[in-house]
Amino acid sequence: MPRADLWGPLTGLLTDPAIAPTLTDLIVGPRGAIWVDCANHPGMRRYYQLELCEEDCRALAVHLIRSAGGRLDDAHPWADTVLPLDEDTLVRIHAILAPLAHNGTTLSLRILRSSTHSLAELVSNGMMTEEQCAGLLRDLHHHRTILISGATGVGKTTLLGALVSALPAHERIICVEDTAELNLRHPQLVQLVTRHDNTEGIGGIPMSTLVRQALRMRPDRIIVGEVRGDEVVDLLTALNTGHHGSLASLHANSAADVPPRLLALALNAGMPETAAHVSINSTLDVIVHLARDAHTGHRYVAQLWRREEETAHG
């Protein structure tokens, strides 16, 4: 049960039986308006039962960030954090204050439920077919590297959680994230989370450092919550040095866009172009691209690419 002393004016919405069970995103702003996004619903919709004035919106944002030990004020007008909603649910929070948010302080909340869905359940709810599920189970068994792509809110975290839950209990899984938002279940799961600079601008620990640390922790598989920066070089290096079967997610518009996206990230991180091409071509085994139906909100596997199939048909 969400705590009223923590969530304040949002408590009613977060316990609303018509909204809460399928809620995926909650947005406060612009101008204190409340917007919600629910699973299997076509996009954001206004929640008219609640509206906050700028003073209350700012007070709520500061309260939530400070409750997690963070700082949000005029000198540091944006912040990210994660707070527990209940025993099985986390909430990722991003806040940005006015006047940077020109039409009012804005809060963006992503609901992160425990990834208890199995691959079989994803088949039942129509995210994938039985054939696709069987193929992914074979990919896991053969330690193929799987990258999940798609836009925000298409179910990348859900699928990643289902894949992790299907891994054998004897395997050691090291998960690296920028924010602790992958609410995964596995008996040997170790989660490493980045640390941002303190108020003096020092002390930060980036994803790339944590990927290197993960390599020293005897991983059977490495999970990268979202590949989006310099850590791509360390991940590609790991995959080229025997750590096959790793899993990661990436924002991309299609399966075909994933290799160019990885290449751009690698080049931006200073990796030589030839080395980047070779690494990507030799390590990327499977791409699962997810999409969301604009009319129904249904999330599904839109494309499934395998290097072995391309080779067989090439």
Automatic annotation (TrEMBL):
<protein>
    <submittedName>
        <fullName>Conjugal transfer protein</fullName>
    </submittedName>
</protein>
<comment type="similarity">
    <text>Belongs to the GSP E family.</text>
</comment>
<dbReference type="Pfam" id="PF00437">
    <property type="entry name" value="T2SSE"/>
</dbReference>
<dbReference type="GO" id="GO:0016887">
    <property type="term" value="F:ATP hydrolysis activity"/>
</dbReference>
<dbReference type="InterPro" id="IPR050921">
    <property type="entry name" value="T4SS_GSP_E_ATPase"/>
</dbReference>
<dbReference type="InterPro" id="IPR001482">
    <property type="entry name" value="T2SS/T4SS_dom"/>
</dbReference>
<feature type="domain" description="Bacterial type II secretion system protein E">
    <location>
        <begin position="68"/>
        <end position="293"/>
    </location>
</feature>
<dbReference type="InterPro" id="IPR027417">
    <property type="entry name" value="P-loop_NTPase"/>
</dbReference>
